[in-house]
Each structure stands twice: as structure tokens, then as C-alpha cells.
Amino acid sequence: MPRLARCRHRPHGVISAGMMLAGLAVGLAGCASAPPASLAQAHSDMQTALTSGPESYTRAQWDEARLKLNQADEAARDDDMAKADRLAQESSADLRLGRSMADAQHAQTAERDVQTTIDTLQSQTNGPAAAPPPGGPPRPMAPPPPQAQPMSPPQPR
């Protein structure tokens, strides 16, 4: 049986330890998973919200979204990606809800303003007779000018 040649410049024990260290590094790298895409999206949604201003959102949903995003970041740091994903999605949903609720409140305010204007215009139009202008009663209107008579067709002779 032929004998296998041994590597003279590398002792057998060093190769095995190197292989073990490489395997351990690959195994540990596999444990540290990347944060979910929903976390990046939630941060993007929050940045958009900050740009448009908190007044565009209801306060309760704004605060809830910030809290959940902070909790999602913490869960990602703790390598609990399922929890990070869930909280990030909830954060984005809270921002969308807060924006919708604020839009609805602004629409109701605008509707009330329009209705007040309509009521004011109707009361001015249908209200009591207008008071005479300052300086006395109104002057009588001049009679209308006489209207021209339509031309009749020429009479045959």
C-alpha cells in the first residue's frame, strides 16, 4: 500500500486547528443575521415623517411609532430579528394611521370652515332687507330709457 506524502513545512496539528477556527468563524457569522428590511423601511418612514413635520400626524400614533421603532432597534441589536421585524412593521403602520387620522381631522376642520362660510353667505342673501346706506334713504331710480321699436319690413307699393 502506498504511503501518503506528508507536508513537511506544516505540522498536522496546525492544519486541523486552522480548519476548526475557520469553521467556527463561519458558524458564528451565520448566527448574526442581517436586520429585516422592514426595519430599514420603518427608519425611512420615520425620516419622512420628521421631514413633513409631526403636526401632520396625531400625537398618540407619532409617540407609539417612535417607541416601537426604538424597541425594534433594540431587538435587532439583541439578534431577535422576528421581534425586530414585527415592531418595525407596527411602527410603520402607526405612522400611516397617525397620518390618516391627522388628514381626517384637517378635512373636518376645512369642512366646518366651508359650512360656516356658506351659512354666512346664505344669511346675507336671504336675510332681512338691507339697511339704507349712510347719508339717507336711497334715491329713486331714473326711469328706463325708451326702447327702440323694431323695424317693420318695407311695404310694397
- Stretches where pLDDT is under 50 for at least 5 consecutive residues are 4-30
Largest sheet: none
Number of helices: 4
- Share of helical residues: 55-70%
End-to-end gap: 149 Å
Kindly report the average pLDDT value. 76
DSSP E strands, number: 0
Strand content: under 5%
Q: What can you see in these coordinates?
A:
The termini are far apart. The protein has helices at 12-31, 37-52, 59-77, 81-126. Helix content is 64%, strand content 0%. Helix 2 (37-52) runs antiparallel to helix 3 (59-77).
Question: What does this entry show, briefly?
Answer:
The protein is mostly helical and 157 residues long. It has helices spanning 12-31, 37-52, 59-77, 81-126.
Quickly list its features.
single chain; 157 residues; mainly alpha; elongated
Detail the topology: elements first, then pairings.
Layout: H1 12-31, H2 37-52, H3 59-77, H4 81-126
Helix pairs in contact: 2-3, 2-4, 3-4
